[in-house]
Write a structure and sequence with these properties.
Blueprint (H helix, E strand, L loop, with lengths): L8 E5 L10 E6 L3 H8 L4 H4 L4 E4 L3 H10 L4 E4 L1 H34 L16 H7 L13 H13 L1 H18 L4 H18 L2 H12 L1 H5 L1 H4 L4 H16 L6 H12 L1
Helix pairs in contact: 1-3, 4-5, 4-7, 4-9, 6-7, 7-8
Length: 266
């Protein structure tokens, strides 16, 4: 959590409190693992060993903290952090094409200044190539079922013009579908193996990096399929803190702000 001026705090929360009193277990200044561990070890060991599951991102420091302080807890890497990386890999390909389209349009405009008319291509939905790639950003975040009619048309044009984007979209959507299915961990392993093969065949650098990242955190990612736990409660509480900060129009006195947070939620 960042309060102001980029100053970070580590907030440990309990899902059982559901965002109400008792939600905050600890607030620790900074994110360095040794400092966070030092403070969390002050919690009675009998309580710490009763923790069964911790949801977290892929940061190595968080994994170390969880291992040292909650040795009996199963670590679950939040599915949305994994899916976010897949989306970013897809968007990287779109952005690359967008810069190429901007360059093409700039060249056409420069040519027109020399006495010729600017020949800027316009598609059937009224988008230029540059606009097509810019306006496709949001539809690539969604599954096909959630597209509006205009997004369906834009996607059809986009995938016709850029088959590699369609292939990358299928990879991203394939990962989303694995997570959305109510399957066991062993079935998820098989489906991920098929998805890895599709990545190898597609030969996108960004997706190859994503595959390596998943392999490094494979066990913790697969733990999701045991109870399907996510980091949504922590993210929701983080949003609640941000909203509280916004109502106060920023944080002028950090100590008093943290005191108020603990009075409300600890």
């Amino acid at each position: 959590m960042a309060l102001s001026d980029g100053e970070l705090y580590t907030v440990l929360t309990s899902k059982k409190a559901k965002g109400r009193k008792g939600n905050i277990v600890a607030i620790i200044k900074g994110t360095q693992s040794d400092i966070v561990i030092e403070h969390l070890l002050k919690i009675d060991r009998k309580l710490r060993i009763r923790v069964e599951e911790i949801t977290l991102d892929m940061a190595g420091s968080m994994k170390l903290i969880a291992k040292r302080c909650f040795p009996n807890a199963s670590q679950v890497i939040d599915r949305f952090h994994v899916q976010k990386l897949a989306i970013e890999a897809l968007q990287e390909i779109r952005i690359k094409h967008r810069w190429e389209a901007i360059e093409m349009e700039n060249n056409a405009i420069e040519e027109s200044s020399k006495g010729t008319s600017a020949d800027i291509e316009t598609f059937e939905n009224g988008d230029t190539r540059r606009q097509l790639l810019a306006r496709s950003r949001y539809l690539l975040y969604k599954s096909r079922e959630k597209w509006s009619e205009s997004q369906r048309l834009r996607a059809a044009i986009l995938f016709t013009q850029y088959p590699d984007l369609e292939k990358a979209y299928h990879l991203t959507d394939g990962l989303r579908k694995i997570y959305n299915q109510k399957i066991t961990k062993s079935v998820a392993m098989t489906k991920l193996a098929h998805w890895f093969r599709n990545i190898e065949e597609a030969d996108f650098k960004s997706f190859s990096t994503l595959k390596r990242t998943i392999m490094i955190h494979y066990r913790e990612i697969l733990n999701y399929f045991d109870k399907r736990s996510t980091n949504a409660a922590a993210e929701s509480f983080n949003a609640k803190i941000k909203n509280f900060r916004m109502q106060l129009r920023g944080v002028k006195d950090r100590t008093f702000f943290l005191f108020r947070l603990t009075q409300l939620f600890a």
